[in-house]
Amino acid sequence: MLEAIRDALSIEMDADDRVVLLGQDIGKFGGIFRATDGLLAKFGDKRVIDMPLAEGAIIGSALGLALSGLRPVAEIQFLGFAQQAFHQIAQQVARMRHRSRGRFAASMVIRAPFGGGVRTPELHSDAIESQFAQAQGLKVIAPSSPYDAKGMLLSAIRDPDPVLFCEPLHGYRFIKGEVPSAAYVIDIGKANVVREGSDVTLIAWSAAVDLAMRAADVLSAESISAHVIDIRSLLPLDVDGLVVAAERTGRCVVIHEASLTAGFGAEIVATISRDAFYSLQAPIERVTAPDAPYPLAAAERMFIPGIESVVAAARRTLEVQ
Q1: Catalytic residue among 124, 170, 227, 256
Q2: How far apart are CA 136 and CA 22, in angstroms?
Q3: Is the pTM of this model over 0.85?
C-alpha cells in the first residue's frame, strides 16, 4: 500500500504542476514511513516542502496554497496528531466553499495514517476518523487495499473539495495486492463488495476490512457465508450500497478500530436501522475498541478488534430466529 500511495503522488505531480507536497520530514527524510521517498530528488524543494512540527501550520499553509490555485497534499504524521490542527481543518478548510459562497474551494488533500497492529506509542494509532465526520464540507475516505489507495488518492487530489485521506498503518507494508502502473481513479463515495455471502454482512473500512475477510474465512469453515462490504468513504457515505448489503442477509456486524461510543459505526447502525429496518433479522452488532485510551504496545492486541470477536458477533446475529 505504501508503494501504491507513493506512485499516486508521483503520477499526479508529473501530470499537474499545481500539485505540491508539504509536511514534517517528507523531503530529505522521505516521510516517517517513506511514503514520499525519492520525490524531493525528482520534483525539487519547491514542490516537496519540509514543514515544522506544527500541525496547525501545516494545514493552514496548505489552505493558503490551495486558495492561491495550487493543489497541496499535506501529510500529518499520524491521524491522532490532526487534533492539533482541528481548528484549521474544521473551521477553515472544510468551510471555505460555504464561507466564500462558492468563490473559493479548498482543493487539497490531508494524508494521515491511523490504526493499530504496529505497536505504536500513545496517540499514534488513535482511530479518530469519526471526529472529522462532522466537519461539514470535508470528505473523509479510508481505503483498505493498495489498489483502492492509489485510485482513491488520485481522485482525492483531483477533487475540487478538501479530502481527509486516512491510511491504515497496518496496511502500509502488511497489505499487498496488484496495482496497475498507469493512472486510474475510483469514485469517492462508492462502497465496494469485497466478498459475496448470504448469511451475515460484515461492514468495515480501512484495516478492519482485512480483519473482516479473515473472520469470513473462519466463518466459512463453519458453513457460515459472510458478505463483506468495504464502505471506503465515510463522507460521502454510500447509503444505497450499504442498504443493499444489509438487506442481502438481514444480519449485520459493523467493525472498526475506533472506540464504541460515537464511533462511525454508530452512524452506520442508525442508517441501516432507518433505511433497511424491515429487512433486519437480528440486532446489529458492533465490534470495536473499548471506550478507553489507547494502551501501551504490550496490551494492543487486547484493545483492537480481533478475529475471535468478529466471529463471535456474527454467530450472535445468527442465533436470533
Answers
A1: 124
A2: 24
A3: yes
